[in-house]
Structures are given as C-alpha cells and as structure tokens.
Amino acid sequence: MSESTYVLIIEDTVSLALTFAGQLEAAGCTVEMADSGAEARQQLTRSPRPFDVILLDLNLPDGDGLELLESTPQMARDASVVVITADGSISRAIQAMRSGAYDFLVKPVAPERLTTTVVRAGQHRMLEREVQVARRIKKRDRFQGFVGGSDAMQVVYRAIENVANSRATVFVTGESGTGKEVTAEAIHAISQRSKGHFVAINCGAIPENLLESELFGHVKGAFTGALDNRVGAAKEADGGTLFLDEICEMELKLQVKLLRFLQTGMIQRVGSSRPEAVNVRVVCATNRDPAAEVQAGRFREDLFYRLSVLPIELPPLRERGDDVVLLAQAFLDRFAAEEGKAFDPLDAAAVDQLRRYAWPGNVRELQNTMRRAVVMNPGPALSLAPLLPREASPVPQATPASPGGLGAVPSDAALLDGSSVDPEAAFDGMTLAQIERRVIERAISLNHGSVPGAARVLAVSPSTLYRKLERWSGEATVDG
Fold this sequence. Notes:
Blueprint: E1 6-10, H1 14-26, E2 30-34, H2 37-46, E3 53-57, E4 59-60, E5 63-64, H3 65-71, H4 74-78, E6 80-85, H5 90-98, E7 103-106, H6 111-138, E8 142-143, E9 146-147, H7 151-163, E10 170-173, H8 180-189, E11 198-202, H9 208-216, E12 217-218, E13 230-231, H10 233-236, E14 241-245, H11 252-264, E15 266-267, E16 276-277, E17 281-286, H12 290-295, H13 301-307, E18 310-313, H14 323-339, H15 348-356, H16 362-376, H17 414-417, H18 423-426, H19 432-446, H20 451-458, H21 462-472
C-alpha cells in the first residue's frame, strides 16, 4: 500500500483503534484516529488533504455512525468509506451502502481482511479521482485564448496553471505559429500579477543596436537620437510580466546583461550609472532548439539554464488531432462577423481538407487561410480546396521553369549553395539585394507559402524573413 494512502479511523474503543492503526500502518498507510463523531468532523476539517479511506464504526459515544455518514456528505464524496461494526444485520449493511459506503465489515475482522479491504478502497478512490480529473479536462476545449480539446493541449493548460503563480522564469518552446505569445498572456492572466502590465518584446524584430534600449531603457543623450529619457520594457512591466519572444535571436553581448538582470533584479539604462530595481516575471520563447543553439555557441549555456527553470513545449497543429477543425470553425465565425458575412458550418469536404494538410505554419497559417477564405468567398458555402494542397505532401525537390520566374531550381539546398544552379543564367544582371529577394520568395513558394518552412530551408529565423517581407510589401516585385 502506498504511503500516500491517507486513512481516518473513527472508533471509540481505543484498543481496537490502535490495533487497526497498527495493521494499516504496517501495510504502508498514514493513519489518523477519532473516537467520536465530533472529533471526526474536526479531523475532516483540519486535515491537510482529503482522506482516501475512512474506517467508520457505527456505534459511537455521541451518535450513530450512519447518521454521521448521512449528515456529512463530503465523507463519501471525498473518500471511500468502509463501515465496521459488530452489528452484522443485512439491513444495516444495505443502509450503509445506500448512504455512500464503499464496503461493510463485521467485527471481529481478520488483519488480512482489513488490509485487503482498505487497499481496494484506496485504489477505488484513486481511480475515481482520476476519472473526475479526466472528465473535467475533457470539457475544456477553450482556455485563456486557446481553442482545442486534444490531450496535447490539456497538458499545456495544466502546465500553464501550474506555473502561473511561481516567480521562476518560464521558457516556452515550439514551432512558429503554435501560440507562444498566447501562452505567455495566459500565464500572466491567471497569475497574481494579472493587474500589472504584460509587456512583450520580439528580440528578432528589433535591430541589435536598439534592443538594449528597448529592453532596459536609456537616458537623454545616451546616443545619437536619444532625445528623451526612455523607460524600457523591463521597467514598464514592473509588477507584471515581461515576455521575451525569439530569445535565441539576442546577441551574445546582450545575453550577458540579461543574465545579470535575471540574477539581480536590477536594470541599468543605457547611458546611466544608476541601477534600478524592478520586480517582473519573465517568460521567454523561441521557435529554435535552444539546446542546439547552446551547442552551436549562439546562446549562452548559463542563460539557457537560468531561463528554462519551468519549460513548456507547445505541440504543432499536426499533432493536435481534431483541434484543427475546432480552430477553423472558430476563425470562420470570427472573420465572418468581422466581414459582415454569413457562412454555413464547415462541411465534410472542408473538414477532410483541414485534417489532411500538415499545416507547417501551424495555427497562424490556419488563421490566415481562414481569413482569406472568408474574404474571397461570398458565402454561405465555403470551399477550402483552392487554398490548400490536396494532401500534406513533402516539399517538392524540383519545380519546372515558369515565365518570369527564377527558372529551374532542382532542390531547396540549391537555393543556398548554388550547387545545381548556374548563377550567370539565373541571376544575370541582378543586384545582391535582388538575388536575396528572389531566393527568399522562391523558398517560400517551394514551401507552399509557409514562411517558417522557408526559414528552415534557408537556415534563418522566421522573424528575419517576416521583417524582409514587411519591408518589401510596398515595393514592386523582382520581376516587375
């Protein structure tokens, strides 16, 4: 019997109570005793955790044990109640079972019979609690901005709840588009810091020479362009949560300063000699493998261990089962309302398309797909076929030349090393910036429009590609 099995013996005969306790303790139980109904109620109230098994005598000095059971419903609700009495009548046994008792023993009780019954009762209570938890979790298909009822997401929900009120740093990992910032916002929302500010910094979207100022602030005149004092993100989040996204994009020199901040709780603005104390909870995230970044020398090992006290790994959408259908319907309803349109629920063909596609861009890709579908369709029927590949197939290794395109690019690797591309033929007369843009756009095309997929092929951060695409969005195309 596990030591965690917690037993309350309610028995007014001291010698019997001590005998039962000795036998159960020898079987590995933790035992408390009460010699009356009044003391039993006190034990139930002040107990550090619910009892697993209650051994209940029916003849107590201050009342009948069955009356105690019937008037204290939490006894049978929270524990397996085993009634034990010298009265072996069938009517008393039936009455006890109707009142919620798990089993019925008649004195005198052999030690083996007692321990076997209590062991079985404890196991029964453990299974009932697991079923209650499973039922509660199964109903939770939405949680703090998340949509999804898969087992993988139940693990994430529980992890968020477990870490919310800790002061330790949380390190969220997962592919691009899986919801890392949503995770950080959820941790903040259910924590004791929820009344404070939630401040997010994307370490990959801010130039290296400005990131320190964005994070820690600066004083007027600290550098060219510092026309006023600036409160950095860490100070702005004082009393709340600081979210550092794409943490692996941070340069090594600034990683040292971040580590010092995490260890001391002190910041120093750029251009200032005066340190300031801040009280923030730090949540950071990356779509890279941080251990591999440490191995490659791009991320400090001491910072990695300081950040990853409480890790949370987000599953890709392809591993979340029918969550993709729940999410798609939720996005459809939201965007239809925004556009003032009405759509039928997703039909079997659309559901089949959603399930078969691998969603390399995860929830973000699904969100963008559903938005395009709503904008491009008048309703009420919705077809996803034009927007998705017929099946989740590997990225093609070769594509034929097309008018105005790059020409034949035999493999994704050739986009980088040019091993199968004639640079004079493919890039003749183009500037380096034009070549870069052509290669990036080609990589995105090969990955069915997935920026994260293209980033993996090109061995760069998705945030780098997003920044370039944003810069190019107002410019003419390369072939224009």
